[in-house]
């Protein structure tokens, strides 16, 4: 057992160098004279090489005289105790103590290079340990007083042994007035009194000893070698924490309200960027259904931001769980079930020995986003339908059903209705998923958002690549706005990154714009050349002017009519004629 650090203290640090060492042929009479002269209780005997071969004590003299075998002229070697137990100079104090206890000896010679270097006596060890006990006791008192919690320790009879500084402060009771007295005389209903009675642990019990004071108490019975010896309680003052929590809760409520107000007036929705009428309409639908549990399917061309939209819906819902996206086109057919539902240990060859949590468990209380749902195998469509109907799953290789509360948002760029007609997608699952459909507009249908997106990606990617934000020439911006963007927002972002990475100046010019974009815009401009038929040319000019005015007015027809300098009724008439 480790006693006060004695395993770290060596014998050479504690041993006494005050010892007597005599030759083996010195007479017993002379040896006794030396011991009496130096007031020594023991004397060590050495051979001609200096090796300790015996020890002689005052107790040995008494025994020799008692048995009448004492001849004072005889050498000391005749009467010495030849069974000498020793320890090395590198031995620990703990080891020395154990040697002395096991052999019932009061003196232990310490050897260095087979010669005596010092002595450890039982009195030295007792003095050392008494000193350490006092030292440790003082340290413990300081430690207990420094602990933030109020600490009280009582014995088996309820007598207070320890009452630290924080207990004094918390309960307005000095240690002088309570230590040595029964806790029941002061706090008869305290948690520590309950544990004294039933000897059962109390953990984090709340109480308020006085107005505006809030305490959390834990109390534990103390056992040593199976014997109940008392109780220790720790009382934590959470008054300040509770007050801060209330202030924080109030601040959060106000902040949440202000955030909702800002979003309501700015039209922002998650990380979605744009203010085109078509996009705003989709945002309004998404915001309206976000707090419901309805399954949502998001459709649209690749790169239109379906996952961004799904995340925004999750963030504006009242779900506390995670948003977990799954790309159905990236999961091999044979792994679909284990990925979505998880598996138990040993479910199949190569499975994790601890098993694995599936997507639905991970998203419990949150949202599962099934991207490219049209690529889900037919056999998994049936299993997914069952999950949606029964609100529970079973892991692969498992027998226990797990309740699931997760909203499903799915997305696809495919025509699921046509897939249903062709027998490639389950009709019942389609209607389960398609409670609300949000069809995202392509970038070519929201050209007024292109420059907003360019600015956003420019700042985002410059920060990522540790670059200064460059200026983009107007002809480049016009080119980007007139390009078709078949890859939609994803293609636009990649193009902006291309411009940032290749740009070496403070201005982005036409030289680094990808050639296919330039050629595409030139081709489209040729297609837009006016026909030679004057009536047809006028019609084309009129239609283009109306489209441009509507874009500039962000879909506001009254503003567009003012830009065109025509009455609003005329604008409606011409829009209808041009099929706008």
UniProtKB/TrEMBL annotation:
GO terms, molecular function: ATP binding; sequence-specific DNA binding
Keyword Signal belongs to the record: no
Biological process according to GO: regulation of DNA-templated transcription
CBS domain ranges (all copies): 15-72, 80-135
PAS domain mapped to chain residues: 136-187
Species classification: Bacteria, Bacillati, Bacillota, Clostridia, Peptostreptococcales
Alphabetically ordered keywords of this record: ATP-binding, CBS domain, Nucleotide-binding, Transcription, Transcription regulation
Positions of the Sigma-54 factor interaction domain: 272-501
Pfam families membership: AAA_lid_14, CBS, HTH_8, PAS, Sigma54_activat
Organism annotation: Peptoclostridium litorale DSM 5388
InterPro entries for the chain: AAA+_ATPase, AAA_lid_NorR, CBS_dom, CBS_dom_sf, Homeodomain-like_sf, HTH_Fis, P-loop_NTPase, PAS
Record's protein name: Sigma 54 transcriptional activator
